[in-house]
Amino acid sequence: MTPTRRPLDGFATGTMLALCLCWATQQIAIKAVAADIAPLLQIGLRSAFAAVVLGLVVLRTQGARFWRDGSVRAGLGVGVLFALEFVFVALGLHYTTASHMAVFLYTSPIFAALGLHAWVPGERLKPLQWLGVALAFVGIAVAFLGNRPGSEQAPNVLLGDLLGILAGAAWGMTTVGIRASRLSEAPASKTLFYQMVCAAVVLPLLHGLMGGAAPTWTAPALYSLLFQCVVVALFSYLVWFWLLRRYLATRLSMLSFLTPLFGVGLGVVLLDEPLDGHFVAGAVLVLAGILLVSAAGTLQAWWLRRQAR
Transmembrane ranges (predicted)? Predict the structure, then answer.
């Protein structure tokens, strides 16, 4: 029986705003110390830290029952998708800016909405949401047009942007995998444990296979890694999965479109990243599309109330 999810309330709205700021900052933190610690290794190390902490929590609360709820297969599948998302993020940040990554990574609600439409009853896309999907993909195309073939950085930026979109798709499918499996009712700590274990294994291994450089333990690198371990890898994801168990996923995404806005602003202010007209126009279309997909029900209810007056 599919559990009932609630629409957003004041608590969920405020919590999502805090998560948006946190997630926007993580791209800046990774990019800022990439010369000291490669992004793949940064994310792998923070995942390993979170996996150890969460493993202790889960074993203490569940013990042998950990293996008896039938969630292991789904957990490993979702964990692989989660690891793949951050492989794309880490590699993409070598080529594109944190601002670009923030926008393209957070196309995830579009991919999540498409997947939920296909596999989860009660979350079918409405006509207005289909318009939002189309608008978002038009925005991606417009943003890509800004990287002219004659530009010296265009091939690298295009590759980085493409990796950002692939990361968004992997994140979206991770959300679908959670909602369409036994993980939808599993404790948030257990769901996150599966993902962190997979990322902790895959990312450092890939870093080593690619001949990545050894880390340089500067003070900024340590502060960045501490922030990513505690705030991002533990706190933010636990809260996100807790929200997914209680509120409609498409409604939660209504506010997640603020994350790329925060990310672009922080990238420009803190990293002095440039913005071009094509990217700004495309980003606006992408965000408008995400808003339509996420807020279609709210907009439709508002329109019906207005018509009834």
Answer: 37-59, 71-95, 101-120, 127-146, 158-180, 192-210, 222-243, 252-271, 277-304
